[in-house]
Write a structure and sequence with these properties.
By secondary structure, the chain is of the alpha+beta class. It has helices spanning 31-49, 162-183, 186-195; strands spanning 3-6, 12-17, 20-25, 56-65, 89-90, 93-94, 100-105, 110-119, 141-151.
């Protein structure tokens, strides 16, 4: 059975289960802020429950990207890497939605998974879900779902220490950040800079 604790603002939560702990946040300002939250949660867990080992660590980001000039999948050309656009047209038809996935083996223990696609309406993260996200109009968006994972060797599961988890999280964040930066173009990066803080 899992227990979920949530901040009063409903923007952060911690879920504890017999074989897992999940820290979630919809109020992401920086990795450093998320890392500090993870540090606090793990230290409290170690102090209270003293878990014996860790079989895996996952860092997962879901980005919902919107741009005023992108209303169809083909409109994302020039804003995102061409490899993410997929077949936006076929014969005389124009795609209304695209989706794809890719898996990259970063090392023997590290993997990066990427989910991506353009949608004509809706949300990447449910605004009516348990965690509150910033309210905005439904409409066309591009979803980037990037997940870095470290898996322990089956023959030797290491003990859980806060320092080790944070070190692994740092490594995963580097890979996730590189993937995100490779996915967006300078044009989209400049748009983010101009609209930062405006939703």
């Amino acid at each position: 059975e899992k227990a979920r604790m949530m901040s009063r603002e409903r923007t952060r939560s911690v879920t504890l289960g017999p074989r897992m702990i999940a820290v979630e946040s919809t109020e992401h300002s920086s990795f450093e802020h998320l890392r500090e939250l993870l540090d606090q949660v793990l230290q409290a867990l170690v102090d209270v429950a003293a878990p014996s080992g860790m079989s895996g660590v996952t860092l997962h980001y879901v980005d919902e990207i919107r741009h005023p000039s992108a209303s169809t999948p083909a409109d994302w050309k020039g804003l995102l890497a061409d490899s993410l656009l997929g077949p936006t047209s076929l014969s005389k038809l124009e795609a209304q939605q695209t989706a794809g996935a890719a898996v990259y083996q970063l090392s023997e223990r590290h993997q990066l998974r990427l989910g991506y696609g353009a949608a004509s309406e809706g949300f990447a993260v449910d605004p009516d879900g348990p965690l509150r996200v910033e309210r905005h109009e439904a409409g066309p968006f591009f979803r980037l779902d990037i997940e870095g994972e470290w898996t322990a060797p089956e023959e030797a599961v290491p003990p859980l220490t806060v320092k080790d988890v944070l070190t692994i999280a740092d490594t995963l964040h580097d890979a996730v950040s590189d993937a995100f930066e490779s996915a967006i173009t300078p044009t989209l990066r400049e748009y983010f800079r101009r609209t930062d803080g405006d939703g």
